[in-house]
Amino acid sequence: MLKLVVLISGGGSNLRALLEAAHDVEYPARVVAVGADREADGFAHAEAFGIPTFSVPFSSFDGREAWGDELLAQVQQWDADLVVLSGFMRLLPPRFVAALSPRLINTHPAYLPEFPGAHGVRDALAAGVAETGASVIVVDNGVDSGPILAQERIPVLPGDSEATLHDRIKVVERRLLVTSILDIANGTLDLTETTHA
Questions:
Q1: Pairing of the two strands 148-155 and 131-138
Q2: Over the stretch 116-143, which tens digit does the pLDDT of each residue have?
Q3: What is the pLDDT of residues 104-119, one digit of tens each?
Q4: Which of 16, 51, 88, 144 could, after both became Cys, cross-link 46 (CB 3.0–4.6 A)?
Q5: Is position 50 annotated in a ligand binding site?
Q6: Which UniProt keywords apply (predicted)?
Q7: Residues with catalytic annotation?
Q8: Rg (CA), the chain
Q9: Is 19 labelled a binding residue?
Q10: What is the helix (H) or strand (E) element at residue 15, kind and residue range?
Q11: Rounded distance, CA 77 to CA 12, Å?
């Protein structure tokens, strides 16, 4: 049984999907804690499932390294097999990544390496592309540049706004995340063998 710590910054829709999947006794992973870099609305999902939460506010520290060291200490208390970034919007310091990688994964609302960064959906629309996508990656020290574990194309429809496109992407992101964790737990996806696509 994989033990997961999930890190969020906002509403936690991917977290909710993971909690619902893990609630099934057949699913080989359990969320043991949910953390955030601020008081996040997504904590309500964790509380609904009886999952402990913790917050490490960035503003309470002198810099990114000190904040990252405390976040790492909080995460490591849970002895997790996998740490999942789920809408976690702050760049992690190299020491944090080095301590956990490759057992540190993230979702991204684009077909990487296309449209990395915080505005993947907006950037895809601005570029006028016919399709974008969703990806699950291993986190490295770049911006959405780690090895790709899973991804899927999603069409951009006429009249799409950032919100309507992102809503469709989120559905695929959630499915890819739940499936990727299942594959990691079952050994069909080996994080130690991941390489750049």
A1: antiparallel
A2: 999 999 999 999 999 999 999 999 999 9
A3: 999 999 999 999 999 9
A4: 51
A5: no
A6: Purine biosynthesis, Transferase
A7: 108
A8: 16
A9: no
A10: helix 13-22
A11: 22
